[in-house]
Design a protein that fits this description.
The chain is mostly helical. It has 2 domains: about 375 residues, no CATH class; about 70 residues, no CATH class. The chain contains 17 helices and 2 strands. About 0% of the residues have low confidence.
């Protein structure tokens, strides 16, 4: 079964550009993660050429893919709200960062150095972008919690609560990152970085106090890992419950168990072995193998979760309706943003390597957070709304005595009663869409009628 699911808007070129951007961002993260092993080979003309090539390619690919995603999300972004205006400003942030990368490249080519102030500018602009990203996640946390609170069946909407917790933890992690990076670049780095500068990815090079090291561990690393490896996995598990019969139990449990095991082993293994509870030891040379496991772990975890979204999109693609097409777009965006958000929330820009590997992943955190927050939000609420509407359909079917009196009624009366239920379902669906900006799959008349028919047959079977 092909893994690529396309629509009229998100096509194979969109996938290609997204994967090109992802590959470059992950490469940038790998250079930062393993700077102690790869630093010298990259500190050369080859490294500069590689950085220039990566920068040009990633911005082209990212902006190309973003164009398609914004077209696919046009309906969601139509409402004239403050947050939708922030979402629409995402390309502006990327173009501003592209200009700064251009200035860094010019400085390296002409003067064999780059200004630390340009890195500070990247942090400030991406800091604004991260501020926007924090607002994205914060707003989505609020919307998730509001929906969970107003839900008629909270037990069935644990998925929404888990996504809310995941968004909140990413907010905390990204806020701490911005504050510490700004402090370090302003107070602990020289005005310019050249090939002779001793760059390092160790915690000691970050010049953090003992209190700041504890804050970094428990307010950056722990929330980030918990958000990705635990809260998101719980949310995905509840999401896949709706489709467990379609994807199979073996695939379901593989998707649920494999990602957190890989990720948690790589990241927290060094902490347990060193019995360290006050400083992150992930970067120490003696734990290199855990860095390999941790990096491979979150890459595998991301792809496993993305596969789950695409698998559901594939199943829905076999039952094409206009509303399903929109939900398939949401699922594709959720899948592809899942593989982007983990690498961009790594934090290696303060390595100050020459050339500045680590800056690319930092620049693209706003793109990843935009796609992740709106993609996950749309998917989660669409599924939750669908469940609520199906529950209402059952309620209305019983209320209008469809289950007990259809056999005694004339055919015309039956049609009238079904039409009334369909109109009521559409009314509730419209109210939900107005509140959340997200469409449910239960907007198609045929699908509502098919579900009502299923409820009737199920109930008659029980009574028979």
């Amino acid at each position: 079964m092909p893994l690529i699911v396309t629509t009229s808007i998100i096509n194979k070129k969109t996938y290609l550009m997204t994967f090109i951007a992802w590959a470059i961002i992950v490469t940038d993260v790998i250079f930062g993660t393993f700077l102690d092993a790869l630093g010298k080979p990259l500190n050369s003309s080859f490294g500069v050429i590689l950085f220039i090539t990566m920068s040009i390619t990633v911005f082209f690919a990212g902006l190309y893919a973003l164009r398609d995603y914004m077209v696919a999300l046009r309906k969601v972004l139509e409402a004239p709200s403050f947050f939708n205006r922030l979402y629409k400003a995402t390309p502006i942030f990327l173009y501003a960062l592209l200009v700064i990368f251009g200035a860094i490249i010019v400085e390296m080519v002409l003067f064999s150095q780059y200004s630390t102030f340009l890195l500070i500018l990247i942090v400030l602009i991406s800091g604004v972008a991260i501020g926007v990203a924090v607002l994205f996640f914060g707003f989505r946390t609020y919307k998730f919690l509001s929906w969970f609170k107003s839900s008629s069946n909270k037990r069935h909407n644990i998925m929404i609560l888990a996504f809310a917790v995941s968004s909140m933890l990413l907010c905390i992690s990204m806020t701490v990152t911005t504050v510490f990076d700004t402090k370090e670049l302003v107070f602990s780095r020289p005005p310019s970085i050249d090939p002779n500068f001793h760059s390092s990815n160790s915690m000691a090079s970050r010049h953090l106090s003992s209190i700041e090291l504890v804050i970094h561990l428990y307010m950056f690393l722990v929330p980030q890992v918990t958000a990705i490896a635990i809260a998101e996995t719980v949310a995905v598990a509840y999401f896949l419950r709706y489709f467990r019969d379609q994807i199979g139990r073996a695939i379901f449990w593989t998707i649920i168990i494999l990602p957190p095991v890989f990720f948690l082993t790589g990241v927290f293994g060094p902490q347990l072995l060193s019995h360290s509870g006050d400083v992150m030891v992930y970067q120490l040379p003696r734990f290199l193998i855990f860095r390999v496991i941790g990096t491979a772990g979150w890459v595998v975890a991301d792809f496993v979760i993305a596969f789950a979204y695409l698998l559901v999109a594939k199943k829905l693609g076999r039952q094409i309706t206009s509303s399903h097409n929109k939900i398939i777009n949401y699922l594709i965006i959720a899948a592809l943003s899942t593989i982007l958000v983990s690498p961009t929330t790594n934090n290696w820009i303060t390595n100050n390597s020459y050339p500045p590997f680590g800056a690319i992943q930092r620049a693209f955190v706003v793109l990843a957070s935009f796609l992740f927050s709106i993609g996950i939000y749309s998917v989660a609420l669409s599924v939750a709304q669908d469940a609520e509407l199906r529950q209402l359909a059952r309620k209305y079917a019983k209320q209008y005595a469809l289950l007990d009196t259809l056999a005694k009624q004339q055919e015309d009366a039956e049609v009238i009663r079904i039409d009334k239920v369909v109109k009521l379902i559409h009314k509730h669906a419209g109210a939900m869409e107005k509140e959340t900006g997200v469409e449910s799959s239960m907007l198609d008349d045929n699908e509502v009628r098919q579900y009502l028919d299923l409820v009737i047959r199920e109930t008659r079977g029980k009574k028979g």
